[in-house]
Input
Amino acid sequence: MKSDIRVCSAWRDRHDRPVYSLSETCPECGATTENSAPAPYNPEDPYGEYRRARKRRLAEE
Output
């Protein structure tokens, strides 16, 4: 999963607060940027099949 909003990868060392950007580099220090949020789920989710089946059942009701 990829997010459009990115954060400076070196913000803890170089900035007082996180610096967000849409580009591949930080606008303030030039460091690379990284995805600002983790993926909302694990792609190898062992219970994903059951969660999706339950969601379908609830939608049918």
The chain has one domain: 6-60. The radius of gyration is 18 Å. The beta strands are 6-8, 20-21, 33-35. Helices lie at 11-14, 48-60.
